[in-house]
Amino acid sequence: ITDDIKLSSGKAIKNAAGTALLGEDGALGSGIVFPTGHIIQHEFLPMTSEDATSSDEFETTGFYKAITPSSTSNKVLIVVTTNLHNSAESYYYLQIIGSTNGALGHSANGFGSIKGYAANRHFATISYLDSPGVDVLETYTIHHKISDTAHTGAINVSGATGYIHLFEIAG
To answer: Which end of the chain is more exposed for a tag (fewer CB within 10 A), N or C?
Structure first.
């Protein structure tokens, strides 16, 4: 091809079955099939405030993000990066709750714990590949708890910014 291809109004480039691959506006058509493992979409939330707890039961941090997978066979890669703090020697736990599959980490321990001492700050990254099996809005919420209710654990402390990233992966 040596010249630009221009589509007339309302026209599309189609495959042999007649399914649109590319519309006149440049949008990909429904006939495009991405290979397994391809990132189809990315959603993210900057977490800019702190949330603390003195509860020994998982409770919401108020940080959540949603994504709508385009197919029930696709997966969602969840990546959470943040900093954590314990007010004294105790264990602090993080958990991710999905609107379809519920608790994604261990039911009692989430994605593990950090043991902190007064004034310690810890950096944490959680990665989890979820298979929600839905093509409707899926919400992921960060929950936390602390082992000793006499103390406080906090996410996103001292003005730091953490992130929730959701990547839809072709299944």
So the answer is: N
Q: Which of 81, 78, 55, 44 is nearest to 160 (CA)?
A: 81
pTM value is 0.84
The predicted structure's pLDDT at residue 63: 96
Whole-number Å distance between alpha carbons of 34 and 55: 44
* CB environment 108-137: b (16+ within 10 A), e (fewer): eebbebbebeeeeeeebebeeebbbebeee
Q: What's the average pLDDT block by block, 10 residues per block, for the chain (171 residues)?
A: 71 83 78 89 95 96 96 97 87 95 94 79 93 97 95 88 97 90
Of 165, 166, 162, 125, residue with least CA distance to 47: 162
The DSSP code sequence of 33-48 is -PPTT-EEEEEEEEE-
Amino acid residing at 99: S
- Give first-to-last CA distance, the chain, whole Å: 33
Tell me the β-bridge partners of 115. Answer: 91
Beta carbons of 42 and 149 less than 8 angstroms apart:
no
